[in-house]
Inverse folding.
């Protein structure tokens, strides 16, 4: 595998899930594979899970790991071409990327959407520069439009916790105080569309996800109706994707607290499991009793990030 961005990069999902289980049963099975190989993780944004689980996965595979927090100690990086660099940015990404590539064998990139220029974000401008100029296999650790390591971990978790062959999975928008990217719902929709599940998305008008990721998925604007009979409730906030309202790209369109997942929402489901990628803001996305309740699987979901990442890095190492 040369890059890991979209669901197609992983190939057959049943095979990927089997590899995930193999690694979960013996995390150190392939510890010789990464000997003398180095993973470089580059963070333009904060992280807890991705940082720790990716490092753990790489260490399980015997790799060395270096981490660069671009905003904490590195030169500030210019990402645009054609600018006169007389501001606070001392180095251009186009020099920095091949330099970084020379010190490692695989690169993971976290670079969130700026949420001001849809075209720039949806072209995955930063990620694609890493792919083009690093000379290394690159995987997304949440970039402008995708978070595939999360979606793969979510798929593993659903596969582990499902009680019926084809579960009903509902992705529900929920309110938040900040404008958040669309990467998590985009990837979740893309992966659920590819998986053998009954997938429904619910959100207020204006939050329609890009059809590149969510095309073909059923959208139900009545949240309670969408949640009826659900086996999994996947809550997430996202800002306006700018599909039906191009002028509102990246904006908060609704703060409707009736969308916060509470006991009354869970009551109409089929004893659904509650999922969220974390970090989650209680009281906005979900109530304390739901996230702390017996049907909340957010902790095993996060734990599966180590597993999804192990499968991806293993494939990249084997392809070298
Ligand atoms: N990688 C997991 C989610 C990251 C990001 N959440 C955030 O930025 C939340 C920050 C806050 O709640 O202040 C997102 O939604 O894409
Ligand atoms: N879910 C997730 O990616 O978490 P972090 O932002 O903490 O890495």
């Amino acid at each position: 595998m040369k890059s890991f961005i979209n669901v197609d990069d992983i190939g057959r999902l049943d095979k990927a899930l089997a590899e995930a289980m193999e690694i979960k049963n013996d995390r150190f099975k392939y510890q010789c594979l990464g000997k003398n190989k180095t993973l470089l993780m580059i963070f333009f944004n904060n992280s807890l899970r991705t940082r720790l689980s990716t490092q753990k996965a790489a260490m399980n595979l015997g790799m060395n790991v270096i981490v660069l927090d671009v905003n904490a100690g590195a030169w500030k990086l210019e990402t645009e071409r054609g600018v006169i660099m007389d501001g606070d940015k001392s180095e251009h990404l186009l020099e920095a990327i091949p330099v970084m590539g020379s010190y490692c064998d695989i690169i993971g990139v976290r670079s969130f959407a700026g949420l001001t220029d849809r075209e720039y974000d949806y072209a995955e401008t930063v990620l694609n520069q890493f792919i083009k100029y690093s000379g290394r296999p690159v995987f997304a650790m949440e970039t402008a439009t995708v978070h595939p390591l999360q979606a793969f971990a979510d798929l593993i978790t659903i596969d582990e916790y499902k009680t019926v062959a084809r579960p009903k999975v509902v992705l529900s928008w929920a309110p938040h105080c900040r404008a958040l990217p669309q990467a998590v719902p985009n990837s979740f929709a893309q992966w659920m569309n590819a998986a053998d599940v009954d997938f429904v998305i619910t959100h207020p008008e204006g939050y329609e996800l890009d059809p590149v990721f969510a095309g073909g998925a059923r959208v139900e604007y009545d949240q309670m109706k969408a949640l009826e009979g659900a086996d999994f409730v996947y809550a997430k906030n996202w800002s306006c994707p700018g599909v039906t309202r191009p002028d509102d790209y990246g904006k908060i369109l609704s703060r409707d607290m009736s969308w916060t997942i509470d006991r009354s929402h869970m009551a109409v489901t089929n004893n659904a499991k509650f999922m969220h990628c974390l970090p989650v803001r209680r009281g906005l996305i979900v109530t304390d009793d739901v996230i702390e309740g017996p049907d909340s699987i957010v902790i095993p979901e996060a734990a599966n990030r180590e597993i999804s990442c192990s499968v991806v890095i293993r494939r990249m190492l084997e392809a070298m």
Remarks:
- DSSP finds twelve helices and twelve strands in the chain.
- Residues 298-318 form the longest helix (21 residues).
- The pocket of N~2~-(3-carboxypropanoyl)-L-ornithine (ligand 1) is lined by residues 142, 147, 178, 180-181, 183-184, 277, 279, 281 (CB under 6 Å).
- Residues 150-301 form a domain with the Rossmann fold fold (CATH 3.40.50.1370).
